[in-house]
Structures are given as structure tokens and as C-alpha cells.
Design brief:
The complex is a heterodimer of chains A (237) and B (256). By secondary structure, chain A is of the alpha+beta class. Chain A has 4 helices and 10 strands, in the order E-E-E-E-H-E-H-E-E-H-E-E-H-E. Chain A is globular, with a radius of gyration of 18 Å. The relative contact order of chain A is 0.20. The chains are: A alpha+beta (237), B alpha+beta (256).
């Protein structure tokens, strides 16, 4: 029997924190969006496709997707040093991989699409919020893509699978402890374009987690679409 | 306007545009399992047999035959490199310059930072070839250069240049709208030039509404009154070929 019987914030185990989404928050960018899971707030801006410099980075037969994930120095209680860190570089790369499977990069030979993601406030699942914002920004920027993607983190506190992990759950220590699995799932084909695992999980629990992720991303996708169809409006759910 | 709203359905990538198996996927769509699915963010245009998506945002995609405004970024031994505000750079060869140019004196004609109105001759993997050998294609001197959402340019130009003519007849400024989203505005008076910028921004912001030409005229009449100026009717002297691009034909041409 799992020791985690009730969630810290009173949510159901398969319930996400309140979501907010808004498209078109940065007028100068080609596409931009803001996405938040409760207290985790991310903002994304897309520039391009544009010419890539230095030239040696250009790929002659397809475009390059460059993601840049940064946490603002005030996004956590203990000020974090601005600038790239080991962690932010890893997340940038992971985001890039998660998104490059949906973007039609063949359409822009030797060009670059820049995606900037900033975390305004961090309370776990920042990479998921960042990816969700980035997808909306990419769509608004008119980048051709086969389908959209939505991201959610599924956690395991002791033996209980929880959707959309919060900071307290991430630090859960009783029993088996905490496991965090961020998923990015494509909207049509339901394929997984990004999956990470921090902790331990059994096969059964893992398939349970995939099911939870599928269910949650479907809902996130709905909100993303709604925000895109009502540019400028804050969509809450 | 209500009718207008109904006709325009905004779709996101991955959304099913039509599940009619007899229809063919047009621009920015693809077919999967007998369904036509959007490949890009935009409004659906059902043209009977073909369904396509007209993008409402995004950077300029160069096409052959488009007239664009370019900024000279480099002078090479056989031509000029242009920034045409898209993912590739433009190249204007000496041969495509309307006048004889001495090989040693390219800078006599165009220097870095100069703006030219040119036509795209070809889009290749590495860059765009442009020409200035055609009537109306000129070096743009003076005035203001602004950047407009390239997807809204057809609306700024209007049907057969009607919008541009309407604005020009009020403010007296000469307007060149490049299909890449750069717009040059030249007038005798700074206030009138700024008013023209305002009018173009107004068109850009309200591109999806109807009856725009009248509303722009109304707005300009009011603003001119505030400035204490009369509408500056311009005689039909040099029309810079802006009129030739009718908005509807913009996406007709199919590349290669």
C-alpha cells in the first residue's frame, strides 16, 4: 500500500494544477506564448526562420531548430545565477529534440528557427510548461508542422502515480520516494517525442504513467488550441 | 462582417480541415487516411476541389515574381547582396541592374544600406536572385521604411492597389509595398509620412475585417483635420507598379 494517499494541494491523483495559456504576448517576436501549470510559469518566443550565422553551422538540406531554456534569476526563492548552467543546457537540448520531430525543418534549408523559453516562476515541471509554451509560439510563428505536441510530467510518490508533479511531490521521501517522468506527446499520432525518467519505476507503474500522460496531454492540447484560436486572450482551465 | 467571420475558420497544425475524400490537399495541408489535415496555422480556404490554408502569420516566404523591397547588405565584385527580410538573402547581379555599371564602381550606384525595389527572378536553395530590369523597379531614396506582417501585405495593397491609392490620395505620400512586408513611405512632410505609417498600421491590425478602405479614409480625414491639412490629391504620375499586385493572386503561382 502506498504511503502517499492524499496530494499536498488536495488535487485528485490524475488532476493537473490550474492551467493558463495565452498566445501573442511578445509583439516583436514572430510567435510567442505564455503557459502555466499553477505556480510554474513559462514564456516562449519564436524568431525565424531566419538566416543562420555563423555559416558553418548551416545545414544545407534542412533548417536548424535552436532552443534556449533559461530560468529567470527570481524564479525560485534562492536567487539563481543568470546565464547558462549545466541543467539549463540539458533542458534546452531535450526541448530541441522534443520539438524537432514535429517541425518541418526540410522547408527551410540552411535557415534557423530560434525558440527562447524563459521560466518566470518555477514550481516543478518547468520543462513541460516551457515545451507547451514553445509549441504554441511555433504555431503562431507560422512554422509548418505535421501536428502539435503537449507536455506533462507524471510523478510517482511512493507507489502512487500522480499527474503534473508539484515541488513538494518532487521532494517526496517516504517509501519508494519520488520519481519524475516528463512526457511530450504528439497530438494526432499520440507518439512520444520526449520522455525522461528521474528515479525508479516498475513496468506496471510505467504503463500506468503513460496512460496518465496520454489523458493529461489531451486536455493540455485542447487548451493550447483554444488559446491559438483566440490570440491575446488568457485561457484558463 | 458576420458573414466574413463565418467564412474564416482558423485551424492549427494537425487539425482536420476536411474529411471529404474527394477533395485534394492544397497549400499548407497534407492528406492522411483520406482526411485533409492542416500543416500550418491559418484560415481555411475551400476552393471546391482543393482545400488550402492561407497563413495569417509568419515570416515572408520568397516566391518567383514577387516584388520586394531589399536593403543592400554587401557589395561584391559582380553584384549586391540584399536583405529581403526572409530566411535567405537576395542577390542582385550587375546584369540585372537597369544601367551600365563599371565593374570597379559598384558603389557608385548602390551602397550598403540603400533600399531597392526589385523583383524575385528565382528562388534557389542558396539564396534568391532578384532583378531591377523592369519598369517601376527603382532605388528608393529617402522616406520611411517600415516592416509589416508579410501575410497582411495583400490587404495593405488592396484590390488592384485600391488601398494604397486611397491612402496616397489622402496623405500625398508615395508608398511602395514590397510583398516581403517592407513598406517604403515618402512624402514632403514628416507629419504626413507619420500619418501614412499610422494608416498602414491600422490596415495591418484590422486586416481580417471588411470595408477597410472606407474606414481608413474616414480615419485619415479625421486625422488630417486635426493636423489642419487638406487631403493631398496626387496626380496619377508615377505609379510604382504597386497596383499590379492584386491581393487574390498572391498565392496562385506555384513554384517549380
Amino acid at each position: 500500500m502506498s504511503s502517499y494517499k492524499k496530494r499536498y494541494d488536495g488535487r485528485k491523483f490524475d488532476e493537473m494544477r490550474p492551467i493558463k495559456a495565452q498566445v501573442g504576448v511578445i509583439p516583436n517576436a514572430d510567435g510567442s506564448a505564455r503557459f502555466s501549470f499553477g505556480n510554474t510559469k513559462a514564456i516562449a518566443a519564436v524568431y525565424g526562420p531566419k538566416q543562420l550565422h555563423p555559416q558553418h553551422m548551416q545545414i544545407p538540406d534542412k533548417g536548424l531548430l535552436r532552443c534556449n531554456y533559461t530560468m529567470m534569476s527570481f524564479s525560485v526563492t534562492e536567487r539563481i545565477k543568470p546565464g547558462p548552467s549545466r541543467r539549463s543546457q540539458e533542458i534546452s537540448k531535450v526541448t530541441e529534440w522534443a520539438l524537432s520531430s514535429i517541425v518541418d525543418l526540410e522547408r527551410f534549408p540552411s535557415a534557423v528557427i530560434d525558440v527562447h523559453i524563459m521560466i518566470e516562476q518555477a514550481d516543478a515541471s518547468t520543462r513541460c510548461a516551457g515545451i507547451n509554451a514553445a509549441v504554441m509560439a511555433l504555431v503562431q510563428a507560422g512554422i509548418p508542422m505535421k501536428e502539435m505536441a503537449s507536455s506533462v510530467s507524471i510523478g510517482k510518490c511512493d507507489e502512487t502515480i500522480v499527474t503534473d508533479v508539484s515541488k513538494e511531490e518532487e521532494d517526496y521521501e517516504d517509501g519508494e520516494g519520488a520519481t519524475d517522468m516528463p512526457f511530450t506527446i504528439l497530438s494526432n499520432t499520440k507518439r512520444i517525442s520526449h520522455l525522461q525518467l528521474d528515479g525508479k519505476v516498475s513496468q506496471e507503474k510505467f504503463s500506468e504513467a503513460i496512460k496518465a500522460a496520454m489523458k493529461a496531454t489531451e486536455k493540455i492540447h485542447e487548451i493550447q488550441v483554444k488559446a491559438l484560436k483566440n490570440i491575446g486572450e488568457v485561457i484558463e482551465a | 462582417m458576420v458573414k466574413d467571420k463565418n467564412e474564416r475558420t482558423v485551424v492549427v497544425p494537425g487539425e482536420v480541415v476536411s474529411d471529404d475524400a474527394s477533395k485534394l490537399p492544397g497549400d499548407n495541408t497534407y492528406k492522411d487516411n483520406g482526411k485533409i489535415i492542416a500543416n500550418r496555422f491559418g484560415v481555411v480556404e475551400d476552393m471546391g476541389k482543393i482545400v488550402k490554408i492561407v497563413p495569417i502569420s509568419g515570416v515572408y516566404e520568397p516566391r518567383r515574381g514577387n516584388n520586394v523591397l531589399g536593403i543592400v547588405t554587401d557589395v561584391t565584385f559582380n553584384g549586391w547582396l540584399l536583405d529581403v527580410d526572409c530566411s535567405a538573402s537576395g542577390f542582385l547581379s550587375l546584369m540585372d541592374y537597369p544601367r551600365f555599371v563599371n565593374k570597379n564602381d559598384l558603389e557608385e550606384h548602390l551602397r550598403i544600406g540603400d533600399v531597392v525595389y526589385a523583383k524575385i527572378m528565382g528562388v534557389k536553395k542558396k539564396g534568391i536572385d532578384v532583378t531591377m530590369k523592369q519598369r517601376g523597379l527603382v532605388k528608393v531614396e529617402g522616406g520611411i521604411l517600415i516592416r509589416v506582417n508579410p501575410q497582411k501585405i495583400p490587404r495593405v495593397i488592396g484590390k488592384e492597389g485600391s488601398m494604397i491609392m486611397a491612402i496616397r490620395n489622402m496623405t500625398g505620400c508615395r508608398i511602395i509595398a514590397g510583398q516581403n512586408g517592407l513598406v517604403s513611405i515618402r512624402g514632403d512632410d514628416k507629419d504626413l509620412e507619420l500619418l501614412t505609417v499610422k494608416a498602414i498600421r491600422f490596415v495591418e491590425a484590422n486586416a481580417l475585417t471588411s470595408g477597410l478602405t472606407e474606414r481608413v479614409s474616414e480615419m485619415l480625414t479625421e486625422e488630417l483635420k486635426k493636423l489642419g491639412k487638406k487631403p493631398q490629391i496626387v496626380p496619377q504620375e508615377e505609379s510604382f507598379g504597386e497596383a499590379e499586385e492584386s491581393s487574390e493572386n498572391k498565392n496562385e503561382e506555384v513554384e517549380e
